[in-house]
Every structure is written in C-alpha cells, then in structure tokens.
Amino acid sequence: MRLARAVAPFAARLEHRFRSVLRHRSYGAAEIRALLAITPAAASRLPSLGRFLEQVDYNSCRLAKLNVPPGEVRERLREFGKLLEAQLPGRFHPAREQLLLATLLTLESAFHRVREAEAQAFFGLYRAELEARDLDDLLRRFVRILTRTFHARTGRLLLLDRSIAGRLSRPLYIEHGKPAERLIADPRMRGHYASYWSHPLGASALVQFGFSVPYPWLPRELALLGAAGERCREAIERVRLESEIRRLEAQARHVEEEERRRIGRELHDEAGQSLLLLRLQLEMMGREAPESLRPRIQDACAVAERTVEDLRRIVSALSPAVLERLGLARALRQLAARFRKMHPAELRLRISVPSEPLPMPVQQVIYRVAQESLQNIAKHSQATHVNLSLRAADKSIRLSVSDNGAGFSAETADSKPMSFGLAGMRERAAILGGTLAVRSAPGKGVSVTLHLPGAAQVAPNGKDSSTVN
Q1: pTM here?
Q2: Are 7 and 40 in contact (CB under 8 A)?
Q3: Which domain holds residue 104?
Q4: Which of 79, 110, 304, 326 could make an S-S bridge to 279, C-beta 3.0–4.6 Å?
Q5: How many structural domains does the chain have?
Q6: Residues 263-314: pLDDT tens digits?
Q7: CA Rg, the chain, in Å?
Q8: How far is C-alpha 135 from the geometric centre of its chain's CA atoms?
Q9: Does any domain span residue 223?
C-alpha cells in the first residue's frame, strides 16, 4: 500500500511514457489498454491488491485472446519496471518484486484458463459428434457448447435451404441499433441484445450469438470461432451424408422387400400351381395305372407334396405377407410354430406390442431379425431351450432371442456361416436408428437383442430450414 501511495502522484506520467513505448512497438489500442491495466500504476488507483489482481486476471485473458504471448507480456512489464525505477531509485524493491511476481502468476493462470477453455470447446464438439442421436441433437449440442465457450447470453444455429449470400457470408460484429441488426435472422433475438456475432458455417449454415454488453470479438476468439465453425460444418455435412446413406439403404431394403414379394407371388402362382396340377394328375394316373406302377406313382405324389410344402415355406420366408394380413404378434407366433416343427428345442414366447400398430418398416425389421435368429439357432446352435420376447414401450422397442446352444467366439464371428445374416440384421436396425447387440461365447449360447426407438423412422430426403436455439 505504501508503494501504491508512492506511485500515485506520477502514475499518469508513467502510463504516458509506457504508452509511447507500446506504440513504438506497433501494439494496437486493445493491447495497449490491457497492458496498461496490469502495471503498478494501475494498482495505485485501486483500493486493494485483491481488486488489482482481479483486474490483472481479466486483462490477462484479453491479452491471451489478443494473441500476445505471456513471455512478451513479461518483457513489457520489465520495461515498465525500468520506467518505475527511474522515479523510485532504490526504493520499495521487495514490494515491487512481490507485486511483479503476483502479476505474473495471475497472468500465467489466466493464459492457461483461456487455452484450456479452447481445448475443452473442441473436446465438447468432438464428443457431441459421437453422442448426438441425429442432426437436430447435434446442432443443439453445438450451439450450447459455443454459446458457453464465448460467454454469450444466447445463441442460434440455423440451417438454410439456400446458400448464404451478401454480408452474412463473412464474419460480422453487430451492435444494437445499427442498420446491420436486421441481419440477425431470428426475430426473437433481434433487437434484444447489446451486440451480436454472426459467422457462416459453410455455404448454408449460420451461427449467431447475442451479448448483454457491446463485445467486439478479439483475434483469438475469431480464430477459435472460425475453427469451431469449420468443425461444425464438417460434422453437419457428415451427419447429412449419413442420413442420406440411411435413406438410400432404406430405399434399397424397400426395393428388396418388393422384389421378394414379386418372386414369392411368381413362385406361388406359377410353380406352386404347376406342382399342384402335377400332383393331381399323378393321383389320377395312380387310379388308372396297373398295380405294379401304383407304388412308384404314390412315391412321386409324396415327392410332389413335399415339394409343395417346401415351396410354401420358401414363399413365406421370401415375403412375410402374414405381417400385412395378421399383424406382427400373430406373424411371430406363426414363425415360432414353424420353428417348433423344424427343431426339437423348447421355445418360450413372450410378446407385448403397443395398442397402436407399429409402422410397417419397423414390423418388417423385427420380423426379419426374429426369423434370421431362429434360422441360425435351427442350423447351428444345437440348443435345447430358446427364448423369444418382444416388449414395446413409448420410447423403445426391444426384441430378444436367446438360446443355450453351442455359441461361438466373438473374435471369429465374421468367419461363421451366420455372420452375413448378422451383418444384415445390424444394417436393418441401423436404418431405423436402432442397434443390434450379439453376445456369445463357446458353450454359452447366443443372445441377440434388437433395440429400436419408439418413433423409429427413416430420415426423409432433402434439407429443411431450421433454427436451433
């Protein structure tokens, strides 16, 4: 405090000389103001050391965002120390050294916090990419992270159905009441804040922030916003591409189902009818044939009958028309009945479906996963007990098929005969935003679990204008 009282009479003169030194070194007005605020002359105007260190902390953060490195700030403070030594030759050395040390410690801490906040922002964006459920969720996470990073009062991220043109195609700082305020896209935000930032994210996305005070961005903040914006743009494009891929996959699955139906109809109408006619003719021939030929004709009739049964089974597997006729629950029960005829294992069935009918794509995925799982059990598992359960709630649908059979090693699953079927089941689940988990070990059986969101839908094509608050 004695040092502060000693410096106060000539603090203005010291700052004038120090400002000249900083201008000579080509510092801008913002850098000069921040450097002047962390000198002993600034400390002499404040009532306590604590208040001064708070000021140092704030302006050190600004210097970090102005891209002035800590080493450079230390050199400037030593230059100020030389100016101060000329006014106080040999006086207050311990106090001056301690004040400089406290200032430098606060400076380093502030620089570290700024860099840490930048790293946390990018980590948050990366994590949002991994955890987001869909594009809307991704945008919501992004705008929340960026609003918090820049200490804004509000933020908007807008996806547009056309390319950004004019002034909005470049970064803008806008103050309240200026003509440029009309460029704030969201009317709920426009006119309610002291200042705004607007930054394009690629050709058709825009992020805008509102601040409670006039807050022109600093160079480091603008660079961070640009880098974060590029990250957001790439993530948005990736999610859009993934959505388009899922749409195309869903369309391919739809075409596949239609082709299965066509093949099933042709087998039923052409080959099936021909086999029935053949069997009928064989029966008529058997009545008129000599006694010596009748056993052979009866054998031929039996072969024709088995072929008709096999053809019906193939047609049913190709096109589960029973879904459209009877619904999911009865289709699964029919599937279970066919499994019991083919396999000696005990099958326990538990089915709980919502009162409202599920969309047909959801029913088809559930049916196909159950069908593939039971076929794999019948072919490979040697199981004695099988459980199939379907549970549907408001937020999710869960199908589980498990057995106590031979199982397989997860490491070698890709080489198993059933691996292609498992890949197909996973693709079907992913199209609807669901997951398919397979757990198994040699001698421990297999458990297949399908999870689908309650409102599972395939993403529509095209881009829609939207605003995320």
Answers
A1: 0.57
A2: yes
A3: 2-119
A4: 304
A5: 4
A6: 777 776 778 788 888 888 888 888 888 888 888 888 888 888 888 877 777 7
A7: 37
A8: 7
A9: no
